[in-house]
Amino acid sequence: MVTILCDGIKYPNNAGALVRSAALFGADEIIFSPPPESREDHKRDRSYILDNGVIRYTQYFIRGTKRYSMEHMDMVNVTFNVSLKEYIEKEQSLGTSIYVLENYGTHDISKSDLTQEKIIIIAGSEHNGVSKYVQEKEFTTLYIPTAGGDRSFNVGHAVTVAMYECWRQRH
Q: Is 109 exposed, middle or buried (CB count within 10 Å of its CB: 0-12, 13-18, 19+)?
């Protein structure tokens, strides 16, 4: 089972691309978790809303994700507004292998074993990467090797490469 856990993805077009990639490369689920830390810019953001002290995705974000996914939402289980902390704690207690996809990663994704029965790949937000909560965890960080020195990808492209690598190793 492969899960993509999106940590604070902000733009519906990127979220839709993530859904398409997850579906096309056989992920079982993609979870969109709003950022666990509140920031001043959330007050002016169309993707998030502060609801009784909890940050949630807006209908603007959810509808946009559905539109940009181009009918692929039926091919993969898609969930919005899952608590990042609660989900990670639950999966850690079950022994799930958790990886973080970041440009500062220490392990080349193509040389990492992604064939465990259940894995989670965490992808961070477009501007801030993964949250402080995820950074403080001691998960294996993966990077995508490139021809140049800069390893910074659009989050949708990075997850597409990661999903292809998972699919390649599993087939």
A: buried
Which of helix, strand or coil describes residue 167? Answer: helix
pLDDT in tens, 2-29: 999 999 999 999 999 999 999 999 999 9
Of 23, 82, 22, whose CA–CA distance to 57 is shortest?
A: 82
Q: Are the C-beta atoms of residues 131 and 124 closer than 8 Å to each other?
A: yes
Q: Return the DSSP state at 70.
A: T
**CB within 8 A of 52, min separation 6: which ones?**
none
Q: What's the one-letter identity of residue 98?
A: I
Q: What separation in angstroms does the CA of 17 have from each of 48, 98, 118? A: 19, 22, 23
Chain position carrying tokens 């090797």? 145
User: Can you give the pTM of this predicted structure?
Assistant: 0.94
Q: Which residue has the tokens 């500062």?
A: 104
Q: How far apart are CA 152 and CA 110, in angstroms?
A: 16
